[in-house]
Each structure stands twice: as structure tokens, then as C-alpha cells.
């Protein structure tokens, strides 16, 4: 009985795996076409400075509307782009587009917004990334401090290499943000050495903030905030959805916030109102 079940299971998993692989190959091909046909889009989510309650920057978030499957989440297609190497040309396209958008906003609004771009691990270790960024900055004429690169803790596992790359970024004059902070591994001693400007508290810790409950939650968020203050890092809270969460963050000295409470990520046309 066990043997039969085992074999059935094996066949089931095999078929499932096969289906997944076929699906991924299809998506990879479609993603390649989407890039060639200019079908990828970037939405932008405002980042609000909390003492002035002013939008000071935005995060660029990739969007892909598949011709038959509809919108596919970056959580699903970024890994495919990463595995196939497509993330490299896609990432270059994002960086260039963002730099152009920064200039377009500056012309329209006379404001110098800072825009954050997410990097993936393969991109981070791509030897010509620094050159791509430097060229985009020069070609568009943005102030390098208007560009922020978001990395994650997993990218810094190779501490020596990561340190060199991060200092290369800094020599360009761009800012560096540690995204999803608290969900990965990072040693506090390395955090101190890396030339990081911002820590982004992961949304899972923001979700735990609920001041209505008897026992005050949000202990991790508060701890990260206290630590960041001691390290001289500015903190961005991500995934802020409620007034209570915002109040808690303000009380604990958080510098910036982003989340549905302020605005969802939106296409450029839709942000006109917000820019005023
Ligand atoms: P992330 O960089 O941590 O981005 C934050 C995610 O949280 C975004 O999901 C955003 O839409 C979502 N979010 C923002 N505010 C709220 C909120 O109040 N509540 C909730 N529930 N969610 C909120 P999105 O756009 O689906 O992106 C998912 C992830 O995909 C990003 O996480 C990032 O890691 C990756 N990604 C997106 N664009 C790019 C890109 O251009 N390049 C690379 N390498 N990765 C990207
Ligand atoms: Mg991010
Ligand atoms: Mg992330
Ligand atoms: Mg994040």
C-alpha cells in the first residue's frame, strides 16, 4: 500500500513539476516579448516624510499585464526573470526609465523627487551595473542623490563583495536602502560597515502594529527604529495601511512611510493630483 501511494505521489509531483516547468518556460518567453514590445510598465508609490507630511520620493514598482493572463505579480515574474537572466535587461530598462521620469517630473513640478529602484541579486552582482547606472545619470542629467537603490539582506551574504559594490554605488552619489529589513539575515556589525542610507522596515512588522489591542504590539518595529536611530540610519516604514500604524511610527521617530494609507502604487498619469 505504502509503495503504491509513494509511487502515485511521485508521479503526481512529477506531473506537477512538469506543468510548472512548462508554464515557466512559457512565461519566460512571454516576458522576453513583453520587454521587446515595451509592454512592461512602472507604477510609482509615494514615500511620505513624516514631520512635514510631504511626499519626498516614490518607489518604482514593475507591472506586467500579460496579454491573456492579465496582471501578473512581480512576486511571480521577478523570480522567472531572475532565473532566466532576463532581469538584467529588464533592470536596465527600469533604471533608464526611472531616470527619465525623474527629469520629466522635475520639468513639470519643479520638484526634485527621489525615486527608489529595487535591485535583484543577479543584477546586484552583474559587473556592469555601476556603469549602467552612471550612464543613465549622465544621459538624463539627474542629480545622483535623486536615485535610491533598494537591496535586500540576502544580497549582502557575501560581505566582502557586497561591500565593494555598495561603495561603488556610493561613489556615484546615489542612496542605498535596505529593503524588507528584518526578514533576512544581517549581522549588526555589517550593517554598521555597509554604506547604507535607509532601512525599510518590512511590512510584516508594520502589520503587527495594532494599538487597539490591550498589549501593545509592534515591538519589532519599535526595536528596529531604536536601533536605526543609534546607527544614524533613516527609516522608511512600508505597508502602512492604518492611522494607528502611522501614529505608532511617528511616536517612535520613524522618518518616512509608504503604504496604502497614503497611496497605492499608481501609473504616472494618476499621480498628477498627488504631485500637487
Ligand atoms: P518591495 O520592494 O518590498 O515592494 C513593496 C510591495 O508592497 C509592493 O508590491 C507594493 O505594491 C506593496 N505595498 C505597498 N504598500 C502596501 C500596503 O500598504 N499594503 C500591502 N499589502 N502592500 C503594499 P509589488 O508591487 O507587488 O512588488 C513586489 C515585490 O517585487 C517588491 O517588493 C520587489 O521586491 C519586487 N519588485 C517590484 N518591482 C521590481 C523591479 O523593478 N525590480 C526588481 N528586481 N524587483 C521588483
Ligand atoms: Mg522595495
Ligand atoms: Mg523587496
Ligand atoms: Mg519591501
From TrEMBL:
Instruction: Supply the name of the protein.
Output: EAL domain-containing protein
Which residues belong to any copy of the EAL domain? 24-276
Transmembrane ranges, per UniProt, are: none
The chain's coiled-coil residues are 10-37
Organism from which the protein derives? Anaerobacillus alkaliphilus
Amino acid at each position: 500500500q505504502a509503495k503504491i501511494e509513494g509511487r502515485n505521489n511521485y508521479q503526481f509531483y512529477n506531473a506537477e513539476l512538469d506543468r510548472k516547468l512548462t508554464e515557466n518556460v512559457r512565461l519566460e518567453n512571454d516576458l522576453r516579448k513583453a520587454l521587446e514590445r515595451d509592454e512592461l510598465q512602472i507604477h510609482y508609490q509615494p514615500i511620505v516624510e513624516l514631520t512635514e507630511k510631504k511626499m519626498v520620493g516614490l518607489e518604482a514598482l514593475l507591472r506586467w499585464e500579460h496579454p491573456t493572463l492579465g496582471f501578473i505579480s512581480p512576486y511571480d515574474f521577478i523570480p522567472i526573470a531572475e532565473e532566466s537572466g532576463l532581469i538584467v535587461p529588464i533592470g536596465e530598462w527600469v533604471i533608464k526609465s526611472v531616470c527619465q521620469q525623474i527629469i520629466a517630473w522635475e520639468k513639470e513640478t519643479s520638484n526634485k523627487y527621489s525615486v527608489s529602484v529595487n535591485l535583484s541579486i543577479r543584477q546586484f552582482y552583474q559587473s556592469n551595473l555601476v556603469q549602467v547606472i552612471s550612464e543613465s545619470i549622465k544621459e538624463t542629467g539627474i542629480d545622483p542623490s535623486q536615485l535610491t537603490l533598494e537591496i535586500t539582506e540576502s544580497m549582502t551574504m557575501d560581505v566582502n563583495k557586497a561591500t565593494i559594490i555598495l561603495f561603488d554605488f556610493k561613489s556615484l552619489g546615489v542612496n542605498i536602502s535596505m529593503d524588507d529589513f528584518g526578514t533576512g539575515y544581517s549581522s549588526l556589525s555589517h550593517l554598521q560597515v555597509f554604506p547604507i542610507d535607509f532601512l525599510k522596515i518590512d511590512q510584516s512588522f508594520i502589520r503587527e502594529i495594532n494599538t487597539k489591542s490591550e498589549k501593545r504590539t509592534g515591538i519589532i518595529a519599535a526595536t528596529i527604529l531604536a536601533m536605526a536611530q543609534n546607527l544614524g540610519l533613516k527609516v522608511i516604514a512600508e505597508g502602512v495601511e492604518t492611522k494607528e500604524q502611522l501614529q505608532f511610527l511617528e511616536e517612535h521617530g520613524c522618518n518616512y512611510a509608504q503604504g496604502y494609507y497614503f497611496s497605492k502604487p499608481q501609473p504616472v498619469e494618476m499621480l498628477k493630483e498627488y504631485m500637487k
